[in-house]
Design a protein that fits this description.
- This is PilX N-terminal.
- The chain is an alpha/beta fold.
- It folds into 2 domains: 148 residues, no CATH class; 219 residues, no CATH class.
- The chain is built from 3 helices and 28 strands.
- The strands form 3 sheets. It has an 18-stranded parallel β-sheet that branches. Strands 1, 2, 3, 4, 5 and 28 form a 6-stranded antiparallel β-sheet that branches.
- The termini are far apart.
């Protein structure tokens, strides 16, 4: 009896141990299965995230490639971008939306992208700040890399043509005195003195000021070469001329006379305008893009000027159109200063043609980029 009892107990122990091993093995297999499913799902989530990210990046690339593309979106309304909702990397960019609102000098752009991969879904949101080239052409924009003190004491006027209300943008501190007069809203990154000289609104210590625009010189040079309008040396253009397309001057440019047509003159050196530069009709327009300085002396100029240096106006100077520069020099008073002579800048949007600003790149800043909670 004792022997049989011992054998029975041993057999019972073996059965119990076998059952325990089977339970543990089954549990282990279940845990392994869950782990493997979790790993697979995590992979799907990562892939869905990358797909959603691709939707955001494609929208940003679209904005950079063709700034006018944004014009079709109404202000303040979220709209789907169906052209970007496509199969991608084994999943799909399921939904991309864009909402633009006016803010500061430009637009706040809110992008949402939903990426799907098998059973996983991720939603990303990006907020951008966008300023196009035309935004800077609001009259007078002084955008040096470092803030300057602009002290205008002489006979200076910033005026408007017709009912068009302009802007004065300044990276720095502004002080107006004497006969200075500004018919425009003023946005300055620093202080503003002489507010009695300003008719418009004043925004001192403004934080949303744009930077000096980046110029795509390679684009302009290639287009000028293609048109046979590339000049590897100094150039003088005067008299009555017909302009068309893009001109690229490797050296300095001397410019005056009466022009017709529409053109962009890109100059790596300095530009000198010793006499008047006037369009033949209201349709005609010239944009001057200069890496150096622009010098005017007792001349009237109707054009849009973008200069990486300073505009120097000696004697009685008058510019109608718009000016974007890093500095001003009136009457030889020094960079960023205003002194003797009589200088008038008249904002005229009719001379600002978007087709002449193709190589002036828009400014696109990413403010935020975050993931929403995934939706299953």
């Amino acid at each position: 009896m004792d022997c049989r009892g011992e054998k029975g107990q041993a057999l019972l122990f073996v059965v119990l141990m076998t059952s325990l091993i089977l339970v543990l093995a089954t549990g282990a297999l279940e845990i392994i299965g869950i782990y493997r499913r979790n790993v697979q799902y995590q992979k799907q989530q990562i892939q869905a995230y990358y797909i959603a990210e691709a939707g955001i990046e494609r929208a940003i690339a679209r904005i950079r490639e063709d700034p006018s593309w944004l014009d079709k979106f109404a202000l303040g309304r979220e709209e789907r971008i169906s052209e970007l909702e496509v199969p991608y990397a084994g999943g799909e960019i399921n939904q991309v939306t864009l909402r633009k609102t006016a803010e500061g000098m430009g637009w706040k752009i809110e992008l949402t992208s939903v990426g799907k991969f098998i059973s996983a879904q991720k939603t990303l949101r990006a907020t951008l700040y966008y300023v196009n080239a035309q935004t800077l052409m609001g009259g007078l924009s002084l955008l040096p890399d470092s803030p300057l003190d602009l002290d205008i004491t002489g006979n200076f006027s910033l005026e408007n043509v017709g009912q068009n209300w302009g802007r004065l943008l300044l990276n720095g501190n502004l002080k107006l005195s004497g006969s200075a007069h500004v018919e425009a809203d003023v946005y300055a990154s620093g202080s503003v003195e002489g507010r009695d000289k300003i008719e418009g609104q004043v925004y001192a210590h403004f934080r949303g000021l744009s930077k000096f625009p980046e110029i795509d010189l390679k684009f302009y040079e290639a287009e000028a070469r293609r048109a046979g309008q590339y000049y590897p040396h100094d150039l003088t253009l005067n008299g009555t001329r017909i302009y068309s397309g893009i001109y690229y001057v490797k050296g300095n440019l001397t410019l005056s006379g009466t022009y017709s047509g529409q053109a962009t003159l890109v100059v790596e050196g300095d530009v000198s305008i010793p006499r008047d530069l006037l369009p033949g009709s209201s349709y005609d327009a010239v944009t001057i893009i200069c890496l150096g300085n622009v010098d005017m002396e007792n001349s009237t100029v109707k054009a849009v000027i973008i200069t990486g240096g300073s505009l120097s106006a000696k004697g009685n100077g008058e510019l109608e159109g718009a000016l974007v520069a890093r500095g001003l020099n009136f009457g030889g008073a020094g960079r960023g200063q205003g002194g003797g002579g009589s200088v008038t800048i008249r904002y005229n949007p009719q001379l600002i043609q978007s087709n002449l600003l193709t190589g002036v790149l828009p400014q696109l800043t990413i403010i935020s980029w975050k993931e929403n909670y995934p939706i299953f």
